[in-house]
Amino acid sequence: MSAAGPDYYALLGVSRDATPDEIKKAYRKLARELHPDVNPDLKSQERFKIITAAYEVLSDPEKRQMFDLGGDPLGSTGGFPGSTQGFDFGDIMDAFFGGGGGQRGPRTRSRRGQDAMIRMQIDLAAAVFGATRDITVDTAARCATCDGSGTALDSEAVTCVMCKGRGEIQQVQRSFLGQVMTSRPCPTCQGFGSTIPHPCHECAGDGRVRTRRTITIKVPPGVDTGTRIQLSGEGEVGPNGGPAGDLYIEVMVQPHQVFERQGDELHCALTLPMTAAALGTTVTFDTLDGEQEIDVRPGTQPGSILTLRGLGATRLRGGGRGDLYIHLDVSIPTKLDEAQIMLLKQLADLRSEDVVRVGVDGADGGGGLFTRLKDAFSPR
Ligand SMILES: [Zn+2]
Ligand SMILES: [Zn+2]
Prior knowledge:
The chain is α+β, with helices and mostly antiparallel strands. The protein folds into three domains: 8-97, DnaJ domain (Helix Hairpins), CATH 1.10.287; 116-157 and 196-253, Urease metallochaperone UreE, N-terminal domain (HSP40/DNAj peptide-binding domain); 260-374, HSP40/DNAj peptide-binding domain, CATH 2.60.260.20. 21% of the residues lie in helices and 27% in strands. Strands 10, 11, 14, 15 and 16 form a five-stranded mixed β-sheet that branches. A three-stranded mixed β-sheet has the order 1-9-8. It has a two-stranded antiparallel ribbon with strand order 2-7. α2 (20-34) runs antiparallel to α3 (42-58). The radius of gyration is 38 Å and the shape is elongated. The termini are far apart. One zinc ion is lined by residues 160, 162-163, 186, 188-189, 193.
């Protein structure tokens, strides 16, 4: 009858005397075909909005009557069909698709809990090889007294008298566009649609209490400072029986006295006496994997690097291990006694090194880059 507007009956394909059930069925069928999750194309979305508006009107006895009498129950802002003003899109979506369609209607008390993050310090060996650690966390856990409902024993939440369970208060306002229906969360129930007259004394109606508990964490091999380990469902429990959030463990690897890590490489410095560097030697060296004997070749220069394959840090992804690099330095003796001076002078004579030439080949010195030196020299 509303000559200017759309015919809602025709849109849903039902007769003017269709029962509420027939209207519901017709809408449900169309909505399944046109739901944006199934048909993301714009044309289907537009049609979905239109049939949803039609259902909004015809499913509500008051609005249907208004429409039958030639009025436009959707507030006639002129924006139809694109305008969503004034109709409970979310409510309808919730009724048919189990929520998630919009923010309208009463909101549920139970929500997912917050994620939590804690930092954990481990040493380098634990980062390289992995470890198991117990940590104590202080999070919200489900209240055992009310089992998360927030209501005192033998009582339950009751429908809010102010909004009659809708969770929102609707108002028709006149504006320069005409009548506009607005809604705001119900102040009495904070939008929940229900109130708790007798809250649980243990959790004051929140459904959860703070608890301290110990959990065992498996640290995978290869973690580094900044790596986050996600523990699903170990965060704080949501209010009123909501699922728990996740717990993130952020790893901090303590600096090591000897090794410095760069990605999957480990670096360290080793200082050799001048004579050992010249003559060559075997050194017993403490790696994270235990003692290793390393060969220092005769004539080793300061700044040269020894590589121990596969003794570096573990790769977090893909497995395997990087290499361990030993940066060699050579120490020049500073305190010489008479006999040593004589010997060195003899050596210099033999090598015709008594006259120093400028600009001969020599290493650039090396070292310096690694400040934590280890004097691990133990000649055999
Ligand atoms: Zn409780
Ligand atoms: Zn209310």
